[in-house]
Amino acid sequence: MVTALYRRYRPDAFADMIAQSQVTEPLMTALRTDRVNHAYLFSGPRGCGKTTSARILARCLNCAEGPTDTPCGTCPSCVELARDGGGSLDVVEIDAASHGGVDDARDLRERAIFAPARDRYKIFIIDEAHMVTPSGFNALLKIVEEPPEHVKFIFATTEPDKVLGTIRSRTHHYPFRLVPPGPMLEYVGKLCAEEGVAVAPGVLPLVVRAGGGSPRDTLSLLDQLIAGSEGDAVDYERAVALLGYTHGALLDDVVDSLAARDAQAAFAAADRVVQTGQDPRRFVEDLLERLRDLIVVGASSPQAAAAVLRGVPDDELDRMAVQARSFGNAELSRVADLVNTALADMTGASSPRLQLELMLARVLVPAPGAEAPVPVGAGRPEAARPAAEPAR
Ligand SMILES: Nc1ncnc2c1ncn2[C@@H]1O[C@H](COP(=O)(O)OP(=O)(O)OP(=O)(O)O)[C@@H](O)[C@H]1O
Ligand SMILES: [Mg+2]
Ligand SMILES: [Zn+2]
Predict the structure, then answer these.
(1) Which CATH architecture has domain 181-243?
(2) Interval 181-207: pLDDT, tens
(3) Which one of 158, 164, 373, 390 has the largest count of C-beta atoms within 10 Å of its C-beta?
(4) Which of 158, 178, 216, when mutated, tests ligand 1's pocket best, judged by the most ligand atoms within 8 Å of its CB?
(5) Which of 18, 51, 157, 222 to mutate to test the pocket of ligand 1 (most atoms within 8 A of CB)?
(6) Could you tell me which Gene3D superfamilies the record lists for this protein (predicted)?
(7) Domain 248-364 has CATH 1.20.272.10
(8) Residues 285, 290: Cα–Cα separation, whole Å
(9) Strand segments (E) across the chain
(10) Domain boundaries, the chain
(11) Model confidence band, residue 381 (pLDDT cutoffs 50, 70, 90)
């Protein structure tokens, strides 16, 4: 049994953290210039590095060569606090979800009085801090305000608003953020290379999208894809199926048929969505995302579009450029608006399939005055296309 990717790649030093420089840079500066506070609050979405950073901060503070912004990695404290180390006596992690009561807080208060067993500081990491009860927080108030010289507190939480205000105001608060697609894509790309896994073009952008900006979720998905692949190669078909996205080829069909006002082909594609057991709502979401990509492609040079739509393979970019041209910019934005409205209407709709088909019908009706000249630069090759008719 191999350990999960996100555990094997848990950063051990601030320099290895991605996309949280608003936190790591000031912390590293404070460590270098010996201006470390006695209490910190790390907040932000799940899986973005709060617990990891709390451990790194503890490692920096207690390194025998420290306090330092880059732990030496070889002293006993650094070894114990490394990702596969056994943990240190002087760094106490408390899971407030199960130990957030007033008795736990009193117990912590008593432990804090004693000097560290070996290292510079006794560091308390209070994880899931929003779960500390009000009386638990009140019991901690005094010691968090004026802890003994040798004590540091690090609170980590997804819900900083639930941390008692009087505690919060005694800490330095650092907000973590979701990781943007660019750095995340680069990170998973590097990681696949390190793992020796070959990933088909177009798969990593899907993984990044599905991970929603959380490194942990993204790595978990990648892990699952790798685990389910033959011979260290992740292929596109399996990834799309597992992640539940619409296959690029199906999206191409729908988009082409809408651009050509080919009703028959559009409804046939919608039928394929339903027959393959895909959620119509997810399909409409993917279609909207594709239309947005087409708007970007239609409005920018190929290089600029490639930079915005990171990770899209070149052949797909070429196909999208053709699609964008055959719609024209004005028509693209009209269609995107219709699809967007349909998506909103689909929430809780009793028949999503029906909503999907009605949406196609609306899109297929030409805009009023559509035959009028398209604005300059909209680049529709043949100004007037036959309004609707079966090409196949
Ligand atoms: N900024 C980051 N850079 C690199 N890897 C990261 C980053 N953030 C998270 N990870 C990865 O995600 C895993 C989980 O991170 P961590 O436990 O620190 O998240 P968290 O913010 O504490 O989440 P939760 O709110 O669920 O407790 C780490 O083991 C690491 O692999
Ligand atoms: Mg955590
Ligand atoms: Zn060290």
Answers:
(1) Orthogonal Bundle (1.10)
(2) 999 999 999 999 999 999 999 999 999
(3) 164
(4) 216
(5) 51
(6) 1.10.8.60, 1.20.272.10, P-loop containing nucleotide triphosphate hydrolases
(7) yes
(8) 9
(9) 39-43, 91-95, 122-127, 151-157, 172-175, 198-199, 233-234
(10) 5-175, 181-243, 248-364
(11) very low
